[in-house]
């Protein structure tokens, strides 16, 4: 089925040469407990992403997305080859060249880091497409890779948690976007990565463990000092942890780890409330971050 054959309730979001479709359904207060915000499903094929509050819709998405995929054609968001997957097999192979043999090698210091790969090449392109080209389906693949690496190369988090008298599985908390940025993008890529990561690892997910209160500048254009200033008081404890603070440590999760300014700001917010932070998980780390961690910065 081509773009021109789609019924009117499908919207073409990508350029014509890369036909990715978004299935948009506004839902108002139709079931008790929903708020008045419309919910959007992003994009078909692969995986739809309803609001995290819409549990019935999430069940519908998980059940019927494979059926929709049978009738839709798609191209790889990186190379435009025809594929039924988030990335074609060739782009997956190229991305795997960026994978770290020892993802827990930077699991050290006050804020340990567990990273799947180096931020370069095809992996860098995949993350850019996820964040800036409306390709949320990539998050499911990358989150699965990170989860598999966590299971096959587990860091020493159990002994670390026990030493702090907080035994048990850590809560996974995605780094939040500001509400305006998430509304503009349509989704929080860290939350999508965390969902897939938790599906693989079985770790509990706290989608609303943190909330971003200030709309900060984009970090990639700032110096190290400017990044730190940019994130002062940027986060607050989210609704989920205000209602019931976790009794086990927290594992923060984001797409890229650069200088660690975002992770440290989020960690400070959590620790002020007596919440233990186990470490940081990321799909990719920059070379600068690897050097700074190895030097104990």
Summarize the structure in words:
The N and C termini lie far apart (53 Å). Strand 8, helix 10 (261-272) and strand 9 (277-285) form a beta-alpha-beta unit. The protein folds into two domains: 3-69, no CATH class; 89-294, Rossmann fold, CATH 3.40.50. The longest helix is centred in the middle third of the chain and has 16 residues, at 137-152. It has a four-stranded parallel beta sheet with strand order 4-9-8-5, with helices on both faces. It has a three-stranded antiparallel beta sheet with strand order 1-2-3, with helices on one face. The chain is globular. The protein has helices at residues 55-69, 89-96, 121-132, 137-152, 157-163, 179-185, 189-201, 224-230, 239-243, 261-272, 287-294; strands at 10-12, 21-23, 41-44, 113-118, 171-174, 210-212, 235-237, 250-257, 277-285. Mean pLDDT is 77; it is low at 1-52 and 161-166. The chain has eleven helices and nine strands. By secondary structure, the protein is α/β, with parallel strands linked by helices.
Features:
37% helix, 297 residues, Rossmann fold, alpha/beta, 4-stranded parallel β-sheet
Task: Give the helix proportion (percent range).
Answer: 25-40%
Number of strands: 9
The H/E string reads: EEEHHEHHHEHHEHEHEHEH
Strand order of the largest sheet: 4-9-8-5
* Rg of Cα set: 19 Å
